[in-house]
Design goal:
It is a single chain. This protein has 219 residues and is of the alpha/beta class. It has 2 domains: 4-129, Response regulator (Rossmann fold, 3-Layer(aba) Sandwich), CATH 3.40.50.2300; 143-213, Orthogonal Bundle (Arc Repressor Mutant, subunit A). The chain is 58% helix and 14% strand. The chain has helices spanning 13-24, 38-47, 62-74, 89-98, 110-121, 129-155, 159-169, 174-181, 185-199, 204-213; strands at residues 4-9, 29-35, 52-57, 79-84, 102-105, 126-127. The two termini are 46 Å apart.
């Protein structure tokens, strides 16, 4: 394994020393920065840049998020690995959005810590098993929620509106749809307007995307 430099920031000195001791026997990892005061962290990184910065969060607040944002902006080559004692969804998502590339829970093992360091150093994100499960559950629930909403939207359409949506998605122009359904072009346009209102769509392109996504047409 290629040698890499690691920095550790923890406002609790005992935890800071514990992390240092935990990684000291990993031959290819060199701890070149260890800090427990937030106002000294940025100056320390300027004089001693590192590949990976381990940032421990004991109590989540906006100050922590701002710190992650500042670190990510000021030191784009330094990958931020967060160890959090709080694993609520909001904390994880906000921290990731702020720029953290890895997220470990307090129950993570030394093996996970080492793996996380190398993974984010290589340009990939890393989340501990418990965090991955939490994010996966969130993703699945979001998908289910979207699917349920879309199904409800489709059910709000009349049979005629579904026919027009399908034909429009298949590339038929208004006059062609009117001929196929034996209605006027104006009626087709009226139906399309109602469809867009019911589905909360902004453009006819959105209608096509909706039809494809909900398997109303084949591509």
């Amino acid at each position: 394994m290629q040698d890499l430099t690691v920095g550790i920031f923890d406002e609790h000195i005992l935890m800071q020393q514990g992390l240092c001791a935990l990684l000291n026997d990993v031959a290819s990892i060199h701890i070149t920065l260890s800090c427990n005061e937030s106002d000294k962290l940025l100056p320390s990184l300027k004089s001693e840049p590192v590949n990976v910065l381990i940032l421990t969060i004991h109590e989540f607040n906006n100050k922590v998020i701002e710190l992650v944002k500042t670190l990510n902006f000021s030191f784009p080559r330094t990958k931020i690995l967060v160890i959090s004692f709080q694993n609520q969804e909001e904390i994880i998502l906000k921290t990731i959005k702020a720029g953290a590339k890895g997220f470990l829970s307090k129950s993570s093992t030394k093996e996970e810590l080492v793996e996380a360091i190398y993974t984010i150093r290589s340009g990939y994100d890393y989340f501990s098993t418990s965090i991955t499960q939490l994010l996966l559950t969130r993703y699945v629930n979001d998908i289910k929620s979207v699917d349920t909403e879309q199904q409800a939207n489709i059910k709000s359409l009349s049979t005629r509106e579904v026919e027009i949506l399908k034909l429009w998605g298949e590339g038929y122009a208004n006059p062609d749809i009117a001929d196929k359904l034996f209605i006027s072009v104006r009626t087709v346009e009226s139906h399309k307007n109602h469809i867009m209102q019911k589905l909360n769509l902004k453009t006819t392109v959105d209608m096509v995307k909706f039809a494809i996504k909900n398997n109303l047409i084949e591509i």
